[in-house]
Automatic annotation (TrEMBL):
Biological processes, Gene Ontology terms: mRNA catabolic process
Residue spans crossing the bilayer: none
Protein family membership: Belongs to the CNOT9 family.
Any one cellular-component term (Gene Ontology): CCR4-NOT complex
Identification of the protein by name: Cell differentiation protein rcd1
Length: 289
């Protein structure tokens, strides 16, 4: 493959050559950087390609702890993750991606806590793969994430990540809690609920200039949905951060009517006694022991 050739999805021969280059250790790095995001089907259906990509992930595991991962190695893995994100987001490959349990390969990256650039990139790109999955609003995706304990990984990244990582991790958490199974999971006991609440509150109580409008709206969405559960509603009477109630974010949201509406909706819901919709009967019986 000649350096500088840019793949065009309408040029099957060029694309196929790039995919085949993934199997050649000397050409793989260039192929990873050149492949476009709309190659999900070709990547998934090409013999040995996914295995080759996963091999690139596994080979850096020893550099995660102690944290010795170099920036070039991190960039290379991030290119792999970007390709896997294409597969995760494509409607024809998403289910196969889950059935093959490929998101589990990202757990080791999401568990890291080094704040160096190379590790932050690794966590952010891994979150991007999970974010691509939840955008589909597929209950099978949510169930997979719940069964494999991805919520604690999101909370970890909401706590230690950059503003962008926090935003993606909170978006994933929002998508999980919007699902009935996700809400049931988070409100199944007090420990889970308050752990999620603590992660959200930590972001809310951070300096205002560190909280983007987009992140704030994801946080408010999470609180709104948690208030749909009667136990969650009761807990939010006392644990909703004061900054959401005292006008701290008025200036942040002054040019965002939808954001102001969301915050007002949350405050009215929590203070007025209106507890949401029809899912309460089943959720309300869950133990908080």
């Amino acid at each position: 493959m000649l350096t500088g050739e840019v793949p065009n999805p309408r040029d099957p021969e060029l694309v196929e050559r790039l995919v085949l280059d993934l199997l050649d250790p000397e050409l793989k790095g260039h192929a990873l950087s050149e492949l476009r995001k709309d190659l999900a089907l070709l990547l998934w259906n090409s013999f040995g390609t996914i295995a080759s990509l996963l091999q690139e992930i596994v080979v850096v595991y020893p550099a995660l702890s102690p944290p010795t991962l170099s920036l070039p190695a991190s960039n290379r893995v991030c290119n792999v993750l970007a390709l896997l994100q294409c597969v995760a987001s494509h409607p024809e490959t998403r289910s196969h991606f889950i059935e093959a349990r490929i998101p589990l390969y990202m757990c080791a990256f999401l568990e890291t806590d080094s704040k160096t650039k190379q590790f932050e990139y690794l966590r952010l790109t891994s979150l991007g793969v999970i974010g691509a999955l939840v955008k589909a609003d597929d209950p099978k995706v949510i169930n997979f994430l719940l069964e494999n304990e991805f919520v604690p990984l999101c909370l970890h990244n909401m706590t230690i990540g950059s503003e962008l990582s926090k935003t993606v991790a909170t978006f994933i958490t929002e998508k999980i809690v919007v699902d009935d199974a996700g809400l049931s999971y988070i409100c199944a006991n007090a420990d889970r609920f308050y752990t999620v609440g603590a992660a959200l509150a930590t972001m809310v109580t951070s300096p205002v200039d560190q909280l983007s409008k987009r992140l704030l709206k994801h946080i408010i969405h999470c609180y709104l949905r948690m208030a749909d559960n009667p136990r969650g509603f009761a807990a939010l009477q006392t644990c909703l951060p004061a900054k959401l109630k005292d006008g701290t974010f008025n200036s942040c949201l002054k040019d965002d009517p939808s954001g102001r509406h969301l915050l007002q909706q949350l405050l009215v819901k929590v203070t007025s006694g209106r507890k949401g919709g029809p899912a309460h009967n089943s959720v309300g019986r869950m133990s908080w022991g």
